[in-house]
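The protein record filed here:
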Amino acid sequence: MLYRVRGPYATALAKIVLDSGHELVDLSKKLAERISMPQRSEVLPQATVKESDEDPDALIIVGYRDAVEAMLIEMLMRIPFISFRFEELGPYTTIAAKLRGFEKGLCIAEVHGSKIIVQDVGMCNENEIAIVHVVKPALKQDDKAVALPGAAILKDTLVLLDDGGGRVYFSEHIRDYDRKATLSTISNQYTRQGFSIRWRSTARSAPLEKIVHEIEEAVNEAKKLRDTKPSEPMILYQGEAIAYIKLSRPSKEYLDDVRRSIIPTTPYHHQLRTCGICEDAIDLLDTLSNYTNDRIMIKAIENYITRSILNKNVVLEHNKPGEKTIEIGPITIMNLMETELGTAIVGKRKAQKNGIYDGLDVERKSGDIIFTFIPFNNWFIIHRYTDIEGREKGLYININTPPEICYNKGVIKYIDLFVDVIVVGNSVKVIDINELDKAYQRGLVDVDTMYMVEETTKNIVSSINTIRRVLGSLSLQ
């Protein structure tokens, strides 16, 4: 298979593609020099692997379905502690969708059990079958794909849209004036028939014979679809498929190691990149890593990161696979501690209103103090709830991936792993194990993560006395 890689993970991804026996094409000049390969800009990729535009902590693989599936399998075998979602209803996939009527002003349709939003339609008659194509896939469990009326035919160099618009669009990567003029001329006879054409980046260098052949082939296939009269929801023409891979901190550390096999790479390289730290600073750390050992680099970076947020307000980004991110805070970071549970950051906030604490099932009063204990290298975070006098109401121990601290943004982020441990008085309960099992069945967590959650939960339950002793040392100031 032929793959293109892009973005801050590109060097590590290139190594994975090559190690898996596949080929790299359309390399950036910098990457080609780094791995001593030709750019091969004239060769068309079957899929692209890159950072998600919407989430710097995620990869997407987008392209022809077989290429997406092949690389997803490689990623799942190689990168630890990831969650993923495969979506066959990718961009430019043409479907016969059953309309369900308007909901909150949006036309809702359904295919293969998935709901989609159909835009730019005047009528949305319930149970009517409409031919539409996907323009925005659903990347999270509760998201809906977005589709537009008409068929789409995907080729290497173009996408043909049977939308009646008669428009021509160019990829931003097609900049040569003469090539754009040539492509416009080729388009003319088809736009007059009502077809719209999106010229893909590969059209900038593809042979004209191939381009002409593909547009003729696409038009013939679109005309065949016009004669299709489906009676049930189905996929009529597979466009691109897309896979979404959520990376945890340990995943990024693995990618650091892969990158390090090609070029000097600092510990936390990919974490710093996705936090938006200045590239020059990361380049300097990469260079320094070639002159000292990882242990010293790790200690120095962790010390700098943790001390950079001391006495500042931060927000916890609680990312649960397949769901929307929840923000907790602001939390004031009041201490950095060396404890029996490892190096930890301690934060404090106050309850703002009366109610009941979720999970603990105990009364919440305005003014209650909530201490948050964040071990830097462990798979849990502890929230200790006390009244205004400091008397403990309970502990909520969240099982999650080790935290990533974006000190420049005032954000501490992690992936929630569904299971929690609740401690109220002498009662210790483990909750939501069934939610973890469901997540595994849906591909939202991998087997490595399942094992780590199981071991972490056992260790927490057997270490409650140690946890209480450590938390008892927290200052109430």
User: Anything to note?
Assistant: The longest strand covers residues 326-339. DSSP finds twelve helices and 27 strands in the chain. Residues 94-238 form one domain. The first helix runs from residue 10 to 19.
